[in-house]
Design brief:
Elements lengths: L5 E5 L2 E8 L3 E6 L12 H7 L2 E6 L18 H14 L5 E6 L1 H12 L4 E7 L11 H9 L4 H7 L2 H8 L1 H8 L1 E2 L4 H5 L10 H6 L6 E2 L3 H14 L2 H7 L2 H7 L11 E6 L7 H7 L6 E6 L6 H4 L1 H14 L2
Parallel strand pairs: 3-4, 3-5, 5-6, 6-9, 9-10
Antiparallel strand pairs: 1-2, 2-4, 7-8
Helix pairs in contact: 6-7, 7-10
Length: about 325
């Protein structure tokens, strides 16, 4: 169903890396709660187009090491993991594709260490300018303590609830046709607050299943072994990551393809517009009728847009 990984040493981690094809390297970074497996549709498509497609299980995920401390998951370590991956594969640079947290890592890398990035393909998460005050404080004030990013700061409840039944959690998370942006915008404000605990504990699932039974089993098996504390610790460094960017130039001059999803209601469309002045060489495509899990919901569109743009920019 998915190729076996090779295990490498990267920034002190035992990192699981999945590869297909040969040619110019394209490295794909997944988000939460995902795995290299999330790119199962992209690896063969990129390989068929003449690229060396590379996807790691990132720090705390899958078969890669799960360091024990919250500070082990700060942005400087996540970027060092990417550099360690490049070094282990004898690559000076690569094109990078990122979704969700993978996109956050790449936006930060583009600001802090751009010299090892050839081109960027970003899914869903736009480049946000650094706010003048701690973003966790902003989220707490505007969205309350039940908002999932705020909740992750305050307790280990999510770690325990998600870990008690990983298969159930992944099934509740990775769904399609959950809600359109038009429907979401009409909800009362209290129902616009995204709570992953509420989603997990609800009596019924929303939308339609995204994963086959075999795909769901793959995710469940991986998270049964690794747990969710490592992945959630990425969120627990939100404030320290914000502090690290003080005084850093927010502009990015790396050629970038952004693929957005109209019905990814976590992302405000105004933030995609707000990104445009900050990224000098930017191409934007928006997918109608698509939610957050873009490369799994609309793999053919993502593959076509990515390969066409890479060929154009070759």
């Amino acid at each position: 169903m998915f190729p076996d990984p090779k295990m490498i040493k990267a920034n002190g981690l035992d990192m699981a890396v999945y590869e297909q094809g040969s040619g110019a390297p394209v490295i794909l970074l997944h988000g939460f709660p995902e795995l290299a497996f999330s790119w199962r549709h992209q690896l063969p498509a990129l390989a068929a187009a003449g690229y060396r497609a590379i996807a790691p299980d990132q720090r705390g995920y899958g078969r890669t090491s799960v360091p024990p401390n919250v500070t082990d998951y700060c942005m400087s370590e996540l970027i060092a993991d990417v550099h360690g991956l490049l070094d282990a594969l004898d690559l000076d640079t690569a094109t990078f594709v990122g979704h969700d947290w993978g996109a956050f890592v790449l936006w930060n890398m583009a600001m802090l260490a751009p010299e090892r990035i050839e081109k960027l393909v970003i899914l869903n998460i736009p480049h946000y300018p650094r706010p003048p005050v701690d973003p966790i404080g902003i989220m707490r004030e505007r969205l309350g303590n039940n908002f999932y990013i705020v909740n992750f700061q305050d307790s280990d409840e999510a770690d325990r609830v998600f870990g008690a039944d990983p298969r159930h959690f992944i099934d509740r998370m990775m769904r399609k046709n959950v809600i359109t942006r038009e429907q979401f915008d009409k909800l009362p404000p209290e129902y616009q607050i995204i709570s992953l605990l509420r989603t997990t504990l609800a009596d019924e699932a929303s939308g339609d299943a995204l994963l086959s039974e075999a795909e769901l089993d793959y995710y469940a098996s991986a998270f049964s072994k690794s747990g969710f504390t490592g992945p959630i610790n990425w969120y627990r460094n939100w404030t320290s990551n914000w502090e690290r960017l003080e005084g850093v130039d927010q502009r990015i001059d790396i050629p970038t393809l952004f693929i957005g999803a109209v019905d990814d209601v976590v992302i405000g469309l105004q933030h995609i517009e707000g990104m445009k002045p900050l990224v000098d060489d930017l191409t934007v495509h928006m997918l109608d009728g698509c939610g957050h899990w873009t490369q799994q919901e609309r793999p053919d569109d993502v593959n076509r847009l990515t390969v066409d743009w890479l060929v154009e920019r070759r």
